[in-house]
Write a structure and sequence with these properties.
With 313 residues, this protein is α/β, with parallel strands linked by helices. It folds into two domains: 108 residues, 3-Layer(aba) Sandwich (Rossmann fold), CATH 3.40.50; 178 residues, Rossmann fold. The chain contains ten helices and twelve strands. The model has no long low-confidence stretch (mean pLDDT 96).
């Protein structure tokens, strides 16, 4: 069996795959390579899965995405081919949760101002210091990543509130709310963290009225998808100082254009979609792939992180 891998892998990982699966031939090429037409499995980050690639992959049966999102794929075309699609959901939880917690702590302890004062050699002991212990955090999308940031926040004494459509309990959430409870909850929380995927239900879900309902002292963080809130809505909220600070790791269009006002807003932190990056990213992805490849070769029917391609997750 031939497998085309477009994800850059270090030599020791390639050797491990070859030794673990001696009956499989791995090809490390770009998606447009001729091996695409002969391969049964494609392992990719996903940014090279175009309509042309789908059309040419005549023998493909399984698409392994070494990331979580599939919203930019030609979904209907892939669904027509009835491929098995799996992803690396769950591998981002540790780096992303650490990043979110780091931003919340940094802003609460005045680190941006402390660092700026250091560069300017300013001795100023009036930098505001806020404790997060006893605060409330609303986590939009308390899944794998949300439950991990919930765990970390709880360790700091933060009361965690999870938001999903069903209201069903989620790990490391002190309480759960549903959409009809959102507006009543916003005035009570000190931080709002969005980790929601991009779906028809979540696209541009967040409006100015949501910022208006929040405390002026609250922090808003978007680490899910850039189309959760329009840039113009964020800018209006920042200009009106509806919240204390906004942290964005994702944007409507990436990279963020150079003339965007977000770069210069002192109450906004621009993070270039790096919260999920980690030195453990590839090893964790490959571990999931290896487990699924064993099941695939054994002709099992249940896989880790199987994706409903039309739902997007």
């Amino acid at each position: 069996m031939d497998i085309l891998v477009t994800v850059p892998l270090k030599e020791h990982i390639r050797e491990d795959l070859a030794q673990t699966f001696p009956t499989v031939t791995f090809h490390y090429e770009e998606a447009e390579h001729e091996w695409l037409e002969k391969s049964e499995v494609l392992v990719t980050y996903g940014n090279d899965v175009t309509e042309s690639v789908v059309d040419r992959a005549k023998n493909l049966k399984w698409l392994m995405v070494a990331s979580a999102g599939v919203d930019n794929f030609p979904l209907e075309k892939i669904a027509e081919r009835k491929w098995l699609v799996t992803n690396a959901k769950g591998i981002h939880k540790i780096p992303m949760a650490e990043s979110m917690l780091a931003h919340i702590l940094a802003l609460s302890k005045g680190f941006p101002q402390i660092y700026d004062n250091e560069r300017q050699k300013v001795w100023d002991r009036r930098v505001p210091q806020i404790e997060i212990s006893g605060q409330k955090a609303l986590i939009l999308g308390p899944g794998t990543i949300g439950s991990e940031v919930g765990r970390l926040l709880q360790a700091f004494g933060v009361h965690t509130i999870g938001y999903n459509r069903s209201g069903k309990p989620s790990l490391n959430m002190d309480e759960m709310i549903q959409p009809d409870q959102l507006m009543d909850t916003l005035p009570k929380v000190d931080s709002v963290i969005s980790i929601l995927p991009s779906t028809p239900e979540t696209r541009y879900l967040w409006q100015l009225e949501h910022f208006e309902a929040m405390k002026e002292s609250a922090i808003f963080l978007n680490f899910g998808r850039g189309d959760f809130v329009k840039e113009e809505v964020v800018l209006e909220a920042l200009h009106k100082k509806l919240v204390r600070h906004v942290v964005l790791d994702v944007f409507e269009k990436e990279p963020l254009r150079e003339d965007s006002e977000l770069w210069t807003m002192t109450n906004c932190t621009v993070s270039p979609h790096i919260s999920s990056l980690s030195n453990q990213y590839i090893p964790r992805s490959i571990d999931i792939f290896k487990e699924n490849l064993k099941r695939y070769l054994d002709e099992e029917k249940e896989y880790v992180n199987e994706v409903d391609i039309l739902r997007g997750y």
